[in-house]
Design goal:
The complex is a heterodimer of chains A (120) and B (112). Chain A is mainly β. Chain A contains no helices and eleven strands. Chain A has strands at residues 3-7, 10-12, 18-25, 33-39, 45-51, 57-59, 67-72, 77-82, 91-101, 104-110, 114-118. In chain A, strands 2, 4, 5, 6, 9, 10 and 11 form a seven-stranded mixed beta sheet that branches. Chain B is mainly β. Helix content of chain B is 0%, strand content 42%. The termini of chain B are far apart. Classes of the chains: A mainly beta (120), B mainly beta (112). At the A-B interface, β5, β9 and β10 of A face β3, β7 and β8 of B.
């Protein structure tokens, strides 16, 4: 059974750093596209970042230069290192598995989400 | 603001048919990228509903269907049920965006 379990969220001051983890089971993280998607309180979904199966990464403009996505193949775990956090980064962060469909990819499994609150 | 626009809300009585539009442009849906749909029940993570414009994952009722034409896509729900009350999001690619992935603005479906 495929499962994704996020952890690491919490309250952090503006300018601070936080690392989110997403432990996967039932499949191999390194063989899949893995993404982070966030949702600010009462708002819609926003794609944040992806690590492709080949290891290359990509980011939304809103987080580029501040967030780093990575994976630990030995632990089958996905990470999101978040630096220089801003109030507008406050959101529930979901990790999701991406499946390729033609020239796009979609998310077939999602974690339960972890809440990050950036506030003084 | 997303490049994929959805109506903020739609509503219908039980048993009725409702449709949700996802309007894009020539840099996303119009160039041929597939559209995918997600259902988000209150307080839960999104769930894949439709992939590749009109394909249902195993377990999704055939009351849900998707279509795409030109620069827009649609999600239809027939035989509306109380448990369909949720937020719905489309997702596609946009060649003008960093990372390319984009979600629609989201639509709240209310069952009257």
């Amino acid at each position: 059974e495929v499962q994704l379990v996020e952890s690491g969220g919490g309250l952090i001051q503006p300018g601070g750093s936080l690392t989110l983890s997403c432990a996967a089971s039932g499949f191999t993280v390194s063989l899949n596209y893995m993404s982070w998607v966030r949702q600010a309180p009462g708002k819609g979904l926003e794609w944040v970042s992806v690590v492709y199966s080949g290891g290359t990464t990509d980011y939304a403009d809103s987080v580029k230069g501040r967030f780093t996505i990575s994976r630990d193949n030995s632990k089958n775990t996905l990470y999101l290192q978040m630096n220089s956090l801003r109030a507008e980064d406050t959101a529930v962060y979901y990790c999701a598995r991406g499946l390729v469909e033609m020239a796009t990819y979609y998310f077939d499994y999602w974690g339960q989400g972890t809440l990050v609150t950036v506030s003084s | 603001q997303s490049v994929l626009t959805q109506p903020p809300s739609v509503s219908g009585a039980p048993g009725q048919r409702v449709s949700i539009s996802c309007t894009g442009s020539s840099s996303n849906i119009g160039v041929g990228y597939d559209v995918h749909w997600y259902q988000q029940l209150p307080g839960t993570a999104p769930k894949l509903l439709i992939f590749g414009n009109n394909n249902r994952p195993s377990g999704v009722p055939d009351r849900f269907s998707g279509s795409k034409s030109g620069t827009s896509a649609s999600l239809a729900i027939t035989g509306l049920q109380a448990e369909d009350e949720a937020d719905y999001y489309c997702q596609s690619y946009d060649s003008s965006l960093s990372g390319s992935n984009v979600f629609g603005t989201g639509t709240k479906v209310t069952v009257l």
